[in-house]
Write a structure and sequence with these properties.
Number of helices: 3
Strand content: over 45%
Order of helices and strands: HHEEEEEEEEEEEEEEHEEEEEE
Strand order of the largest sheet: 1-2-3-5-6-7-8-11-12-16-17-18-19-20
Distance between the termini: 76 Å
Length: 485
């Protein structure tokens, strides 16, 4: 029994939950708080945007005739993420990237004159999340038990984290009038999501003692941890909306369903080893091997029920806009569920029951509320300026999990604030919209995965992880072209 408990303890230490994708709902620039993006509003839209976050607004934007519009938008973006002391004091985790993100390709058609019905379609690519960082400590410090290795040992620790998330959605929406002031709309969104997550940790210490005086030759004490998770998931989500137009006052409301699972598959590769580790309680040395590769695994990704409310007020040369969206809590579930195959070796049969808990990729989210404020101003008849700011609260919260086994699919424990500033240039047959986007987030409670400050045999050479400061900064330039046929 002591040996079994020891193995469980070691697995728990070596497989400390790591981090992956950003944990936000409003990071996409097509959302209810981004006036700069055409159609990204809930209550009112005064330009010729062709796709709407609230599908009810589609019927209010047409000109009572058959019309076809197309839109394309790209974002040129710089992202910078810094996790201060991410792997120990002075060992920051940095990631910088520059990329071009095709944001949107969409169109709409308005059918009918007396009671027009507008149908819109779109292909939207979210900016996603990319993070790749590494750290290392190569030093001579006291790591091993002085009972058999007195003094400082040569220690080398390596840590690598890579995470890539991409998400593409296809939307189909329609809007229609219920009364001269009230409109309704519905939309369906097909979502395809992919994630690649890889974490590697290697620690080694060279013992000092004369190996002839030991019961076993133990010149090298080491631990290694390798975890790779890949998955692809397809889901379907529906949205219903209402829009009320009362002169200068405009109201909008939407409710979005949870994401319905359509199809998903994932692969997990794991390898964990402990060599020649001394356990003071047992007064003995031990080693451990755990290895597994599983493919074609059941994969599920969830989005919660959400509801949004917006209000817009028209003043003489512009419009003031306020909106908020509430996202419900998501209870703990497995994104990738491993099979209970052989994992800890030797496989005694009972060890297979531990595979699912320790190798799974699981998720749980707290409920959050995001708010946004924006203003548009008619600089001249053909030029409208836009400015908006919105919160983007993180739903990542370790208290939502029943235990700490397994891995969580997010990185961003920080709350973000997004700013957008730009203008729309209107011509007879087209609109050209351009502007700057800026995002910033910071937290002092980012959980480390490893800490190379004080590695020892009690923490299996992984150190004692703690909470550290992390920040993310992003700046982008958006170009959108809307053509009215």
């Amino acid at each position: 029994m002591p040996r079994t408990l020891l193995l469980l303890y070691c697995i728990t230490i070596v497989m400390l939950p790591a981090f992956a994708q950003d944990a936000h709902y409003w990071s996409n620039n097509y959302g209810p708080g981004v006036l700069l993006t055409p159609g990204s509003v809930i209550a009112s839209n005064r330009d010729s945007g062709v796709l709407f976050y609230n599908p009810a607004l589609l019927s209010l934007s047409n000109k009572n005739r058959i019309a076809i519009s197309t839109i394309s938008a790209n974002i040129y973006q710089l992202d910078a993420t810094k996790i201060k002391n991410g792997a120990g004091t002075g060992r920051d985790l940095h990631n910088n990237s520059v990329r071009i993100v095709p944001q949107m390709l969409s169109g709409s058609i308005s059918l009918g004159k007396k009671a027009p019905v507008v149908i819109a379609y779109a292909l939207i690519n979210s900016p996603g999340f990319r993070f790749q960082a590494s750290q290392r400590r190569d030093d001579k410090i006291n790591v091993l038990n002085d009972a058999y290795s007195p003094g400082d040992e040569y220690f080398v620790g390596d840590y690598v984290l890579e995470n890539r998330v991409s998400e593409t959605s296809a939307l189909l929406s329609t809007g229609f009038r219920l009364t001269p002031r009230l409109s309704a709309g519905i939309s369906a969104e097909a979502q395809l999501r992919q994630q690649h997550y890889n974490v590697i940790s290697n620690t080694r210490a060279l013992a000092n003692a004369d190996i002839d005086s030991l019961p076993l030759p133990l010149p090298l004490v080491s631990t290694s941890a390798y975890y790779l998770a890949n998955y692809i998931h397809a889901g379907l989500r529906f949205k219903a909306g209402l829009a009320y137009d009362a002169g200068r006052h405009h109201l909008g409301w939407t409710v979005s369903s949870p994401l319905l699972h359509v199809w998903g598959t994932g692969t997990i590769v794991t390898d964990y080893t402990i060599n020649n580790m001394y356990e003071d309680a047992l007064k003995d040395f031990y080693s451990l091997l755990a290895n597994s590769r599983q493919e074609s695994l059941k994969t599920t990704f969830k989005m919660p029920l959400s509801t949004a409310l917006g209000y817009a007020y028209d003043f003489r040369r512009g419009q003031l806009y306020v909106t908020a969206e509430y996202f419900c809590r998501v209870k703990e579930y497995n994104v990738i569920t491993p099979r209970s195959d052989a994992f800890i070796r030797p496989d005694t049969g009972s060890n297979s029951s531990l595979t699912r808990e320790f190798v799974r990729l699981h998720d749980a989210r707290k409920a959050i509320l995001n708010v946004a404020v924006g203003v548009s101003y008619n600089i001249r008849p053909s030029v409208t300026g836009y400015c908006s700011v919105r919160t983007d609260m993180s739903y990542a919260d370790k208290d939502q999990f029943k235990d700490q086994t397994g891995y969580e699919p997010y990185t961003a424990y920080w709350n973000l604030v997004h700013w957008a500033l730009g203008a729309n240039f209107k011509q007879k047959k087209f609109n050209f919209r351009t502007g700057f986007l800026c995002s910033y987030g910071v937290t002092h409670h980012f959980p480390q995965d490893v800490n190379f400050d004080h590695p020892n045999e009690n923490n299996v050479l992984q150190g004692d992880p703690t909470d550290v400061k992390a920040r993310r900064f992003s700046v982008g330039f958006m170009l959108a072209y809307i053509h009215n046929l």
